[in-house]
Amino acid sequence: MLRKARKYHKWLMAFVGIQFLFWSITGVYMVTLDIHYIHGESLAKSEKSKIDLESVNYAIEELTSDYPKASQVLLTQSMGRPHYSFVNGVQGKVAIDAKTGAVQALVDEAKAKEIARYHYALNHEVDKVRLIKTVTDMPAELSSRHLPVWRVTFDQFATPTFYISQQTGAVVAKRHDFWRLFDWMWRFHIMDYDDGENVSNWFLFLVAILGLVAAIAGAVLTYFRVFSANKKEVI
């Protein structure tokens, strides 16, 4: 039994040992960095001001009357000005000024820069601006439900990036290089190298089972080499 335990432990650890190292490295990275920093909360100014409801002249009743197919209606504010954002049937996302009821124009490049600078908490200059309309042009760090969006990147070593909805002007995502590295660390940690969303994939399950068997074999070796040896010395 001792020979079999040694054999299984040696070969199993040779197979899963590298993944154990990856689990350790990725785990240390993910627990060391503050998750709020990873989410990019420090990149944006904190908007603590509440929406001034008295300035909302276009009531929700008017909106539902003018747009009977409206769904997912949300009252929010952009750059301090209240507006409604909602989905209007096949028309898609729509943004309306909550003061006047006027439909907001699509955000152009200049407006995207203005919105990004308004929300950005630091003082770096805008480096690049790009409009993303299709899934084929979309980076993996963004969900397709936000399309179309402006990608505004600032000139800083961590490459801070704001994604701004072309239709509503809302900042829908904040990314930087530490988030991107965290995303890859997560993928290696759960062994899902595609999109990092399947935490119950068969590869992770297989390596976990093999690791458990290797640990049991190691426990058997420990028993025979430590506890059993001590018994022989006492005898």
UniProtKB/TrEMBL annotation:
Keywords: Membrane, Transmembrane, Transmembrane helix. The chain crosses the membrane at residues 12-32, 202-224. The keyword Membrane applies. The keyword Transmembrane helix applies. This is PepSY domain-containing protein. It comes from Pseudoalteromonas piratica. The lineage of its organism: Bacteria, Pseudomonadati, Pseudomonadota, Gammaproteobacteria, Alteromonadales.
